[in-house]
């Protein structure tokens, strides 16, 4: 993630460091370094929206995360909420009705009440899976190498960064920031955490966001994939949402990859995996860019 002199200047103006006291080097989380490699190799990784639900696999379920790893999907977008008694758990909706055997608002319940609820797949079939905690998901990433793309539904930067640090999970996550302000708030706490952020690198740099640990969200229109070229010369990676256009032809995925986009956010996991060459190809590309975090 190298950047143009102009962007470095903008970032530098935000840091008051004298020549006698240089700023300490920022320890980038491992996914940021891997994205450099995918850009340089011209390969694209898949990011499964809501952990890639399918028949027999629920949104935000541990079994869905395990399936993604087997298929060669590297990023799993998951949704994080907080129970009434403070447990961070995975659920997309504000209410329990659509995806679980429960009813009503989710965050009014203690974890003891949430933890006994089963998940439903997209067809409404009740599965053995139960609502997982964020800690459960961290455990899966350590076993599989998945990167958790955290969509914060009801918690702020302080809460999620504290949870990541407590679990020693900073090398296993990327955080979705929907605004420049949200991105800056996360990087004020840990400038090495990987962020998905709005596609305005100049504004991000002015706000103090570390562009070396940031990739830019191009939106959900596949025709916007060509805009990756605007950022690639500065060593900035991008992602794009294809999930609103699925199911689609193979070119939906290969077109975004060939335009240079590094992360393709998708719902139809098996279609996307096949379009990009299958699990063996994707696993080989992941292995070629694998980064071993430095242990403290």
What does this protein look like?
The chain is of the alpha/beta class. The chain has a single domain (27-288), classed as TIM Barrel (Alpha-Beta Barrel). It is built from twelve helices and eleven strands. The strands form two sheets. Strands 1-2-6-7-8-9-10-11 form an eight-stranded parallel beta barrel, surrounded by five helices. Helix 9 links the parallel strand 9 (214-217) and strand 10. The longest helix is centred in the first third of the chain and has 12 residues, at 30-41. The chain starts with a helix and ends in an 8-residue tail after the last helix.
Set down the secondary structure blueprint:
Layout: H1 5-13, H2 30-41, E1 45-48, H3 62-71, E2 75-82, E3 88-90, H4 111-114, E4 118-120, E5 126-130, H5 134-144, E6 147-152, H6 157-166, E7 173-176, H7 180-189, E8 194-198, H8 201-206, E9 214-217, H9 228-232, E10 237-241, H10 250-258, E11 263-266, H11 269-275, H12 279-288
Parallel strand pairs: 1-2, 1-11, 2-6, 6-7, 7-8, 8-9, 9-10, 10-11
Antiparallel strand pairs: 2-3, 4-5
Helix pairs in contact: 3-5, 10-11
């Amino acid at each position: 993630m190298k950047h143009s002199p102009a962007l470095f200047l903008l970032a530098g103006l935000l840091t008051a460091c004298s020549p006698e006291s240089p700023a300490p080097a920022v320890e980038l989380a491992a996914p940021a370094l891997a994205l450099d490699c995918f850009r340089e190799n011209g390969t694209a990784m898949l990011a499964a929206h809501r952990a890639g639900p399918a028949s027999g696999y629920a949104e935000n379920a541990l079994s869905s995360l395990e399936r993604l790893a087997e298929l060669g999907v590297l990023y799993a977008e998951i949704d994080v909420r907080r129970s009434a008694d403070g447990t961070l758990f995975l659920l997309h909706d504000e209410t329990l009705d659509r995806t679980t055997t429960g009813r009503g608002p989710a965050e009014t319940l203690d974890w003891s009440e949430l933890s006994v609820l089963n998940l439903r797949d997209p067809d409404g079939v009740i599965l053995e899976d139960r609502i997982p905690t964020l800690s459960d998901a961290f455990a899966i990433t350590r076993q599989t190498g998945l990167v958790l793309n955290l969509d914060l539904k009801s918690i702020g930067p302080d809460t999620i960064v504290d949870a990541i640090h407590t679990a020693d999970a900073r090398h296993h996550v990327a955080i979705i920031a929907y605004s420049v302000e949200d991105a800056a708030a996360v990087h004020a706490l840990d400038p090495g955490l990987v962020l998905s952020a709005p596609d305005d690198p100049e504004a991000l740099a002015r706000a103090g966001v570390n562009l070396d640990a940031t990739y830019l969200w191009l939106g959900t229109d596949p025709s916007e994939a060509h805009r990756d070229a605007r950022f690639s010369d500065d060593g900035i990676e991008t992602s794009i949402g294809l999930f609103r256009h699925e199911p689609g032809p193979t070119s939906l995925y290969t077109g975004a990859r060939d335009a240079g986009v590094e992360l393709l956010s998708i719902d139809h996991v098996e279609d996307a995996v096949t379009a990009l060459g299958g699990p063996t190809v994707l696993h080989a590309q992941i292995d070629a860019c694998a980064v071993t975090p430095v242990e403290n």
